[in-house]
Amino acid sequence: MKYLRLIWVNLARKKIRTALTVGSFAVALFLFGLLIAIRGAMNHGEEAARADRLVVINRASITRMLPISHNERLARIPGVKAVVHATWFGGVYKDERNSFPQYAVDPEGLRAVYPDYLVPEAQWSEFIRDRQGCIAGEVTARRFGWKVGDRIAIKGSYMTGVFEFNLRAIYTGARSDVDTTHFWFNYAYLAERYKGRVGWYVVRLADPGDAERVITTIDEEFANSAWETKTQTEGEFGNYFAKQLGDIELLVLAIGSVVFSTLLLVSGNTMAIALRERTGEIAVLKAVGFRDGQVLRLVLAESLVMAAAGGAVGIVAAKAACASLSGLFPGMVLYLPSGELAVGMVFALGIGLLGAGFPAHAAMRLRVADALGRV
Amino acid sequence: MVNANGAPNGKCLIRARNLDKSYQRGGEQLHVLQGLSLDVDRGGFLAFMGPSGSGKTTLLNLLGGLDVPTSGSISVAGDEITAMGRSQLTAWRARHVGFVFQMYNLIPVLTAYQNVELPLLLTSLGRSGRREHVETALELVGLPDRMNHYPRQLSGGQEQRVAIARAIVADPTLLLCDEPTGDLDRRSADEVMQLLGRLVDEHGKTILMVTHDPRAAERARTTLHLEKGTLVEAGRRAA
Ligand SMILES: Nc1ncnc2c1ncn2[C@@H]1O[C@H](COP(=O)(O)OP(=O)(O)OP(=O)(O)O)[C@@H](O)[C@H]1O
Ligand SMILES: [Mg+2]
User: Fold this and answer.
1) Distance between CA atoms of residues A57 and A78, nearest Å
2) How far from each other are the two terminal CA atoms of chain A, in whole angstroms?
3) What SS3 state is found at A198?
4) B5-42: per-residue pLDDT in tens?
5) Of A233 and A45, which is predicted with more confidence?
6) What's the CA gap between B93 and A288, in Å, rounded?
7) How far is B89 from chain A (nearest CA, A)?
8) Looking at the partner chain, which of B94, B105, B114 has a beta carbon nearest the beta carbon of A289?
9) Which domains does chain B have, with CATH numbers?
10) Taking CA atoms, what residue in B is nearest to A370?
11) Structure ipTM
12) % chain A with pLDDT above 70
């Protein structure tokens, strides 16, 4: 396109200013990317949720436990393929700050319900053979430098005493968004301390389309008993946690809007200054016969190029940062979905347009006779 | 009404009637042009002189379609430009008018070649067609070897000649020059005036020029004096 050069020379004339504006877009998109990734990590349960899993908790509250006898009854319900129970342990490894999620589970059930966790076969058989055995996700194992065979001592929090585990296996995720920070050990090891109670159950469905019916059946099965249940899909359950984290969502939103509105001011201001400096030239373009719409498009295109360039740089940087930060903190699976990135890019371009909108409109309406008088 | 016929039997190109232009300044009306009428023939070379603030630039802007009169009418080559809308006027300008300003007004980040090419971007000409026109125009103004120079690498006189090349490259009907030598030294001014004279004599252009410089005005075929928004006398010289 023959007008490209005009756009290009205008961008190139104040290189530092152009670089700063592009940089603002880059920083904004970088922050946006990180916020999205962090929010994603917070809502992780939801993101990684599979439609074929149900979470069964105590109807009264997630903090109340359920009897282990539910396990068998759940397994018998038609449409249920596998059941696992899990119980929060929440101990301290060496230091309070070293937190990572720990659960007592039923090993066989774990494997049947969560195909997303990959464990080498040899390690797996070692794990189930050892009552004191445990499995850690690769991120957590890397964090503490654990190797298979290590002995790991964890101090109970609501349970008094120090408990020792043998690391028998390290699991990896079947997909990049699978959380590999968990730590599981055999429920049997602490069964007496748990007194026949478990935290919750996760049920795997034979057919994901059957979820609604199975949910009703489960909750009816335990209705009017001392241990009523509340069954949800894993996705809904994740949402429940997400709601607990509501303020983080709000924070992300707040930071995001501040960043983007600042960007709007920055880009608008840049274009306003740039155009004010070029008033005479714009007047000449119009005198020569450039139409209002052409002048408008030239200005908007200039801003869009900066937005797009900065946006792209920011996204690449955010991706790189997520890759290197992933797993640095417990439970941190930083992952940037392309859909959200596209939204960010659209935002950036929108801001590029909007910011340039007023100055561009002024340039468009510029009266040549007045402007040349001012030269 | 002033009849500014440089060539007595030529066809009338510009017909301006009862032009009024006033600005609202503070509470009062400022009448810049008052009932000005003017005929200019094709191939004419006309100089406007007059004291500062007499409305010379204003008149030139009206005739070139850069501004619209408060009342009155202007027709150029049969087109009633005072009846045109904003975008129509822009398109008309692109086709029919070339402008030369006192401060050259070249785009500093474009080379001489690219500056001259600007008006052609608006035409349907392809790259090679544009090149041909630009080269011809730059040759005409005597700067074929300065094509790839940026304005800051040129002298004032050369810049103004590039601006003239830009004004004529699309072969306009009419060339409007507002103090084209106002910022130039004697020699460069003479070169520019010589060039404008050749454009009229050899290429049949019609030029309307505002100037404060009597030597520049001498080159024109006709000199008109503006005072307080009216033409006071026509100084006709032999062609
Ligand atoms: N946009 C405007 N608003 C208000 N007044 C204006 C405007 N443009 C021009 N004027 C006034 O109109 C009058 C004529 O201006 P114009 O520029 O036509 O004069 P000129 O003859 O070209 O003067 P000079 O020789 O100094 O260039 C001046 O008094 C000027 O202040
Ligand atoms: Mg003037």
Assistant:
1) 19
2) 30
3) strand
4) 544 445 799 999 999 999 988 889 999 999 999 999 99
5) A233
6) 7
7) 9
8) B94
9) 42-65+95-236 (3.40.50.300)
10) B67
11) 0.90
12) 91
